[in-house]
Amino acid sequence: MSNKTFKNAKDAKYDEYYTQYYDIEREIEAYLDYNPNIFRGKTVLLPCDDPEWSNFTRYFAQNFEMLGLKKLISTSYALESKKYKGGYQLSFLETNSPQFDKNKTNTHGKIFVLTGDSSGDGRVDLDDLQWDYLEEDGDFNSEEVTKLRDEADIIVTNPPFSLYREFFAWIMKANKQFILVANKNCATYKEIFPLIKDNKIWVGVQPMGVDMLFDVPKERAAYLVENEKEGSKYRIVDNVVKARSTSCWFTNIEHGRRHEPLQLMTMEDNIRFNRHKDWDEKHSYCHVDNFDALEVPFVDAIPSDYEGKMTVPVTFLDKYCPEQFEILGITKTWFGSAVKTYPKQTQVNKNGTRSTVTKLNDGGAIIVKEPPHDEIYYIVNDTYYVQTYPRIIIRKKQ
Ligand SMILES: C[S@@+](CC[C@H](N)C(=O)[O-])C[C@H]1O[C@@H](n2cnc3c(N)ncnc32)[C@H](O)[C@@H]1O
User: Fold this and answer.
1) Where does ligand 1 bind, in terms of residues with CB under 6 Å?
2) Do 290 and 334 belong to one domain?
3) Whose CA is nearest to atom 20 of ligand 1?
4) How far is residue 51's CA from residue 120's CA, in Å, rounded to a whole number?
5) Which candidate in 30, 41, 155, 337 could, as Cys together with 178 as Cys, close a disulfide (CB 3.0–4.6 Å)?
6) Residue 230 CA, ligand 1 centroid: distance in Å
7) Which ligand 1 atom sits nearest the alpha carbon of residue 46?
């Protein structure tokens, strides 16, 4: 592998992660279970795709009739514009086609459209896709693709990880329905969390705690195997290297799981019967000093008998039933739900090194009696604090 290819393949913001058919099928079927007509008569746009080999295009083309689609549009991004060009191959569909243009192939995006049985074989499928070059490179933000966005009813894709904020803003501007793959951390972004809080968007059906695996070009696969730990950044399935990413789906389309209330136990029963090996007596059900809330370290430990504010892990969004809970905020400074802010703090690392910081304000702070030996802690005016992970602030609905 050349140095340049290697450097590209190791970029943390690597965008060439391709969604597996199985993940798409499982997610879409859950929306259909809730409303079998959700796609009927609709135009679906799949931007940021590579329609020749994308599983999104494959799924929606093959199921065009079952879904009752009116029109399927899929667009790709020009090779020259992609940040990572390795592994890209011209498809036979393009090179064997009369409209193949060697002057456009690398610099123009492509559009694939499906409206019905154009091949005349009596069924609608991938063979009926009509394609052409776009005028521009297929950037989702281009005027051309933005027009397609405006024409569509539902937008489905796995957008480039590096441009998630921009992509999200682009989609929200059009006020369309969508189903998107994204990193779980996106839920805590200031552009996205307020929409989750206001029930304008929510997490899809696939649980946040279940791995999503992606196909990757071979140089990324080689980079992962050489440099990363199996099980952490990649897995090998049937001898194929699949990239692992902490991803889930975000949507504004209804599905049944979000209306299933969580089964809860009392605080006392949780303390007695919880099965968490790392149940931490020091911090569980402690008072979070700067958010005036109860710290609940596991989603399945949310107590049935607590009526006040609670701070819970972000994976709560997986189980969030808006009829059961309300989301009040997030333990992030930008959200502004803290009831107090601390002056500059002394941070003491596990090895005893000290520094002056302000980051205790960007998370939940728990007062501890003694300086802990096994975790980072903070000192403010002779009081010792530890900080919780980013948490969502919730309250049970009456
Ligand atoms: C995470 S991949 C997903 C591809 C495909 N949707 C799938 O899931 O199999 C995102 C794709 O978006 C492309 N991309 C990057 N920047 C883009 C942009 N500004 N506009 C459109 N596509 C872009 C990348 O080259 C990459 O192929």
Assistant:
1) 15-19, 48-50, 54-56, 77, 82, 138-140, 157-161, 163
2) yes
3) 139
4) 21
5) 155
6) 25
7) 6
Tell me: do 215 and 360 sit in the same domain: no
Give me the phi and psi of 132, to 5 degrees please.
Answer: -160, 170
pTM of structure: 0.92
Nearest CA to ligand 1 atom 17: 139
Q: What are phi and psi of 230, to 5 degrees?
A: -65, 135
Both 26 and 141 in a single domain?
yes
Q: Which residue, of 220, 236, 258, is where some domain finishes? A: 258
**258: Cβ contacts below 8 Å, ≥ 6 apart:** 202, 203, 320, 321, 322
pLDDT given for residue 151 in this prediction: 98
Same domain, 274 and 235: no
Regarding whether 265 and 254 lie in a shared domain, the answer is: no
Which pLDDT value is given to residue 377? 97
Nearest-CA residue for atom 9 of ligand 1: 18
Is 305 found in the same domain as 216?
no
* Closest ligand 1 atom number to CA of residue 159: 10
Cα atoms in the 13 Å half-sphere on the side-chain side of 218: 5
Helix (H, G, I), strand (E, B) or coil at 187: helix
The residue nearest atom 5 of ligand 1, judged by CA position, is 49
Residues in the chain with pLDDT < 50?
1
Q: What is the predicted pLDDT for the residue at 284?
A: 87
Mutate to test the pocket of ligand 1, among 8, 13, 14, 15 (most ligand atoms within 8 A of CB): 15
User: What is the domain count for the chain?
Assistant: 2
Query: Which residues form the domain of 223?
Result: 3-258
What gap in Å lies between CA 3 and CA 40, rounded to an integer? 49
The residue to mutate among 19, 48, 161, having the most atoms of ligand 1 within 8 angstroms of its beta carbon, is 48
Q: Write out pLDDT tens, residues 245-303.
A: 989 999 999 998 999 999 999 999 999 998 887 787 777 899 999 999 999 999 999 99
pLDDT at res. 82: 93
70 and 99 co-located in one domain: yes
Please indicate, yes or no, whether residues 247 and 270 belong to a single structural domain of this protein: no
- At 110 the three-state DSSP class reads strand
